[in-house]
Structures
1.
Amino acid sequence: MNFLLMTVVVAFRVLSRHRMRSALTMLGIIIGVGAVIAMVSIGEGAKAAVQAQIASFGTNVITILPGSMTLGGVRTGHGGAVTLTIADMEELKKIPGVAYVGWSRRDAMQVVHENKNWLTTINAVSPDYLVIRAWTALNGEFFTQAEMDTAAKVALLGSTILKNLFEPGEDPMGATIRIKNMPFKVVGTLEAKGYDTRGNDQDDVVFIPFTTAERKIMGTKFLGSIAAGYLSAESPEQMAPVIDEVQRVLRQRHKLRPDQDDDFTVRNQIDIAKVQEGTSESMKLMLLAVASISLLVGGIGIMNILLVSVTERTREIGIRMAVGAKRRHILLQFLVEAVVLSAMGGLIGVGLGVAGAQAASNIAGWPTIISADILLIAFGFSALVGIFFGLYPANKASQLNPIEALRYE
Amino acid sequence: MSLIVCRDLVKTYRLGEMDVHALLGVSLTIDTGEFVAVMGASGSGKSTLMNILGCLDVPTAGTYTLEGTDVSTLGENRLAEIRNSKIGFVFQNFNLISRTTALENVQLPLFYRGIPAHEQKALALRALERVGLADRQRHHPAQLSGGQQQRVAIARALVTDPSIILADEPTGNLDSQASREIMETLTQLNREGITIILVTHEADIAGYARRVITMKDGVILSDRDAGGVAVARVVPQEVRA
Ligand SMILES: Nc1ncnc2c1ncn2[C@@H]1O[C@H](COP(=O)(O)OP(=O)(O)O)[C@@H](O)[C@H]1O
Ligand SMILES: [Mg+2]
C-alpha cells in the first residue's frame, strides 16, 4: 500500500529530527528486549547442557540406595546398617520390564603409574553397571563375567586419569597401575562424559570389578553389601511399574511390616528432571515478568513522548486536515510513528541481546542457544507494544478540531 | 450554475452558558472566476464564514451548496475530500510545516491523494514555479521571508488545481511590498480562472478584488462590485428575538 509506505517514510523523517529523544524513548524497549533475549539464550543453553548431562547419566535409569531418603531431603535412620545386597539386586533382575541390573561401591584412593600419582575415585562395579550408566569403551572392553568371578586385577580408565597419569600419546592399554600398592592391568579406556549436573568431573574415575574391590581393596562389613544399585527399564513407560515392583520385592525381602518405612530409597532421573524443569519454569516466569515490566515501561515511554509530540504538532495536524487529511490518515501517521519507535527499539534490542548472548558464551564460556523463534516473538511483541501504546495518542491527534488546531500557538 | 450558494447560514458557538452567534443568517452567491474581498471589523464573523465555505466547519443552520452539491449534509470524510480537491487555503500566519522543505509543504495535499511520490514532486515543482519560487524548493520555512512563505502557501493551495482559493487575511503579517507581491500573484491566478475569496481589513488590499462584501456582527452589511454598485440586495435578518 502506497500511502502506508509513504507514511512510514515520513515517520522516519520526523523521528530522525529528534534523534536523542527517539533514542531515549526506545531505550526501555531496547533494554527489555535485549535482556530477555540474552537471558532466554543463556537459559536455553543451560537447559540443553543439563539435558545432555541427564542423558549422560544413562536412559531409564532407576537408582536404589540403602537407607531411606526423601528427594532433596535428609537421609534418615539406618545409620551404617547394611540394607542392600547383591542378592537383592539379583532378585530384581526377575522383575518384568527390567533390562539391566548393576551395582557399585566407590571410594577415593591414590592411583600410581610409574612416577605419577593421582587421587581419584575408584568405582567398583558389576559389568552391567557400565551399560546402564551409558559408558562407552574407547579402547578395550568392559569387564567380563570371568574377570568378575575371579576378582581379576583389571581396570578401566576415565579420560581424566589418562591425562594425569600418562604422557600425551602414550598407549595405556596393558599398562600397569597401582591402587593401594596392588598392580592392576589397564584393559580399557572410556569415552569422556564431561561434568555431571552437580559439576563433578565424571571422567575422573577408575573402574575395577566389584568383586576385586570387595575382596582385595576396600574390604567390607559382609560380603555382598553394595553402596548403590542400578536398574534400567526397557522403556520410559516401564519406569513406574518397575519402581513399584522394586519397592514391593525389597520390602518383602527385608521383611518390613506395613507400618515400617522403607530401608532403601528408589530414585529415577525423571525426579531429577522434574527438579530441573521446576527451576526452569520459575526462571521462565521471572523472565516473563521482567519482559512484561520493561515492555510496559517502554510502552508508557512511547505513549508519553507521542502525547508530547501531538501537542507540539497540533498546528501541523490542523494544516494536514485543512489540505485534506482524513481522521484516519492522522491516526495512522501517529500510530506508524509509535510502531517505528517500538519496532526499531525491538530490532536494536534483538541485536544487543544476541550480542550479549554471544559475549556470554565467548567470554564466560556459558553455553547459549539463540533460537529464531524467540527473536521473532520478541520483535513482534515490541511492535505490538507500539500499536497498543500508540493508539491513545494517535486517536487523540485524529480527534482534534481542525480550526482550533490551526489556531494553536 | 453558481459555484457557491449559501442560504441563511447560522453559526452558533456555545461558550459555557452563553451562546455566541458568529453568523446570523448569511446568504451569498459567488460565481466561478470571481475575485471577492470580505471586509468587516474584527469579530464580525469573516473567518467563521471562510471556514464554512472551506468545508473546515459546518453551519449550525442554513444550507451551503458548492458546485451543485449540498455540502451541509456531508460527513467528515467527504468534507476532507472536498477540501483536498476543490479548495485551497491561504492563512494569515502562512501555516507551513516547519523543518520541512518548501517542496514537501507544497506536496502535502497530493500526499493525501495517494499519488506516486515522483508525480507529487513534479506537480509541486510546477506550483512553485507559478509563484516564482522554484529556486527555493529545498528551503525550510525558517529560511524564507514572510512574503516567500506566503507564496509557498499559495503554491500549496494551487497544487491540487482547486476551484476556489480561500485567503484569510493573507497579507496581515506582511509589509506593504510583500503584500503587493502576494496580491499580484493572487490577481494573476484569478485571471487564469481560479475563484478567489479574500478576507482583509485594508481597503487597498480589498481594492484588488472586483467585489467587496462587508460584514458586521454576523450579517452581511453590503455587497458591491468594484464600481460601488450593489451586487445583491442585502436583507439583514434579525435573528435575535
Ligand atoms: N471556536 C469558537 N468558540 C467560541 N466563539 C468563537 C469561536 N470562533 C469564533 N468565535 C466568535 O465568533 C465571532 C466571530 O469570529 P470570527 O469569525 O473569527 O471573526 P473575524 O474573523 O471576523 O474576526 C467572534 O465573536 C468570536 O469570538
Ligand atoms: Mg478572522
2.
Amino acid sequence: MQPMIKVENLTKRYAGVTALNGVSFEVGRGEIVGFLGPNGAGKSTTMKILTGFIPASAGQVTVAGCDVFEESLEVRRHIGYMPENNPLYVDMRVNEYLKFRAKLKGVARADRKERVQEAMERTGIADVQDRVIGQLSKGYRQRVGLADALLHEPDLLILDEPTIGLDPVQIRQVRELIKELGKQHTILLSTHILPEVEMTCNRVIIIHRGKILASDTPENLRKTLRSGGMVNVELRAPLADVQSVLPVVPGVASVTVTTGDDGMVYAAVEAKADADPREAIYQAAVQGGWTLRELTRSRTTLEDIFVQVTREEDEAEEDRRDQRRSVLR
Amino acid sequence: MRNVPTLLRREMNACFASVLGYVVLVFLLVVMGFVFCSSIADLLASGTTQITVMRRFFYWFWLPSLFVIPAITMRLLAEEKRSGTIEMLMTAPVTDFEVVLAKWLGAVVLYGLMWGLTGLYVLILRKFTGGLTSLDFGPIASGYLGVLLIGQFLIAVGVLTSSLTKNQVVAFLISFALVFLFVIGIWFGEYFARGTTFGKLFEYISCFTHMEEFARGIVDVRTVVLYLSASFWVLFVTTRVVESRKWR
Ligand SMILES: Nc1ncnc2c1ncn2[C@@H]1O[C@H](COP(=O)(O)OP(=O)(O)O)[C@@H](O)[C@H]1O
Ligand SMILES: [Mg+2]
C-alpha cells in the first residue's frame, strides 16, 4: 500500500536561508509520527509544503499518492491541518466557524450539521459552541482548531505544535485527544518538546537545521543511538576494592566512584553499547563479599538522544566549517 | 467559483460585526447629508431645479469615498496575514482567486448598502419638491450606478493594497494615497493640461467626467466596461500578490 506521506529530497530555500536541505521520509497509514526538532529546524516549513501553502524549491512530495504541487486541491481534501499558533477567526462563534469551514471543505449540505456536531463532540467543545472564539481559553481554542481539522474526515492530520502555549492540564488533555484521534487518522505532529513524542507517537523523526537525523520508534532510538545507559550502584564495601574491581566487570565502559557520609560507596557505571552489566556487577559484589543496597539502571531518555544527536550534528558542522576555513587559507 | 458565496457570507458577517463598519457608515451619511443640505439651501435661495441638487450630490461622491474605501478594504487581506488565518484559508480546498474575489465582492456589497442608505435623502428631496412628478428617477438611478461602478474599481485597488502588507494602517494610507491620486491627481491633470492632448486623455479617464454623465442619466457602455475590466486586472494582480508567498 502506498504511504500516506512520501517526501523525497525535499529542499526549501527562503531568500537567503536554506530551511530544508534534502529531506526524505515516509509516513505510513495509521501511524502517529512526531516531528521533533528545536526551533528553526524546519518543522513548520515541511508542514506548510505538505499542506500546499508554500511550494518546495526542489524534491518530490506526495500525500495519499497525489503530488502536493500538481494536485494541490485534491491533497488539501485529504488533510486536516492545524497551523502553528492555531489561527482562527476570533469574531465568530464556534459552531458558526465550524459550519463555515465545513462548507469550504466541501462537506455536503446534508452531512454538514452532523459532521460539525460530531467534530465538536470528539474534541469536547459542544458545551461552548455558542461562544465567540476570541473569548475562549487557549485550550478550548486549540480544540476548535482540532475540530476544524477533523470536519471533512481527512485521512491525515497535520498538527503544528498542537500543545504550544497551553497550561499543563490543557497539555495533558490535548495529548489524550491526539492519542484518541490517532486510532482513526494518520497523524503527523511537530513539537520541540520531547516528552510529547514519547507520550503520543509511534515513531519519531528528528530534524535539525533542515536535515533529518534519525527516524525510528522511541524505543529503537533508545536502543541504537546510545550506549547501554547508566547503572547506579550503592554498596557497603572498601572503596579501593570497588575502584579496582568494577571497571573490569564485563559490559562496563567507565565508573565514577564517590563515598557518602554514611560509609556507603556510590558508583555511577556507564554501560557499554547494547550491554547490561547489572548481573555481572551483582556477581562481583557476591565474590567480594560486599553488601549491595542498590543496583538500578536508568534508561536513556529521548532527551539524551536528542541532545546527543543534535550535538553530534553541530560538532560535525563545526568540523566541516573548520575544514572549509583551512582550505580557504 | 463554488466557494465564493461561502466566503462572501463570512465577509459580510465580519463587516456587520465590526464597529468600524458603523463608524464608516455614519461618516458617509454625515458627509453626504452635509452636501445635500447645502444643495437644498442653494435650491431654496436661488430657485435652481432639484435636478442640480442631485447632480451636486453625485459630484461630491468622491469626498466620502476617499476615506470610506480605504477604511473598508484595509482589513481584508492584511488582517488575515497578520493573524495567520490566511494559512487556514489557503490550505482549505479553495483557490486564491476565489478568496480575492470574495473579499472584493464583500466590500462592494457593503459599499453599495451604505450608499443605499443615502437614498433617504432623495426621499426628503421628494418632500421638498412636492411629489413624484417633479423628480426624475432615471438620472438618480444612473447616478447611483456610477457611484457603485467607480467605487468597485477603487475597492479593487483597496484590496490590492491590503494584500501588500500585514499592517492595516499602512494599507489604509497607501490606498488613501492611491484613491487620492486617482481622484484629485486626474482632476489636476485635467485642469492644468486643458486644451492639450494630455488634457483630453485626462478628461477621458477622469471620474468627474464619468460621474457627470451618469448623474445626467447617460450610461455609456464603454465607461462601464472600462471600469469593470480595470477592476478585473487589479484583482488579477492581487491574486498574483497573494500567490507570491509561493515564489519567495
Ligand atoms: N517566510 C520565511 N522567510 C524566510 N525564512 C524563513 C521563513 N519561514 C521560516 N524561515 C526560516 O526557515 C527556518 C525553518 O523555520 P521553521 O520551519 O519555521 O522552523 P520550526 O517550525 O522547526 O521552528 C528558520 O531558520 C526560519 O528562520
Ligand atoms: Mg514551527
